[in-house]
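# step 3/5: fold
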Amino acid sequence: MIINRKTLAKSKVDNLKNGYSAFAESQEVAELIEKELVELNMDVHVDRTSIGCWFIPELNSNSDEQLT
């Protein structure tokens, strides 16, 4: 099965928008995610490892207020 990397990256960005973490196994998908996040001006913590890249959404002040 062939998976379009751009579609995969968009799906992972959608997960991040919903507050979930995302993992990219390839550098290409990680770069596509990063590009999309810059365009969205979305803050995430990026944890690069030898096996891939984790994207973890950061809580902003508005999110903190909503959780309390």
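# step 4/5: annotate
The two ends are 44 Å apart (CA to CA).
# step 5/5: archive (pending)
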